[in-house]
Amino acid sequence: MGYWKNKLLEWDQRGYGSIGTVVCHGCFGDYAIKEYIKRHGKRQKCDYCHNIRKSHSLEEVIGLIVESAYAEYEDANGCMGYESKEGGFIGANTFDAYDFIHDELNQEMEIENEDLLNDITNTISDSITWCEYNPYGLRLHEYDYQEWEKFTNEVKKTPSKKIMSYDILKKISLYIEELDLIVQSGKGCGFYRSRGHTKLETYSSAKSLGAPPTDSATANRFSKCGESMFYGAEDIDTTLEEIADQKYEAVTTAKFYPTRSLLLLDLTKIKKIKWISLFDERRELRSPLIFLREFQKAIAQPVNGVIEEYLPTQMFSTYLRTIFKTATGACLDGIIYESSRIANKKCYALFFNNDDMVENKSNKFNKLWVDKSTIKRM
Question: Are 197 and 203 in contact (CB under 8 A)?
Answer without folding.
Answer: yes
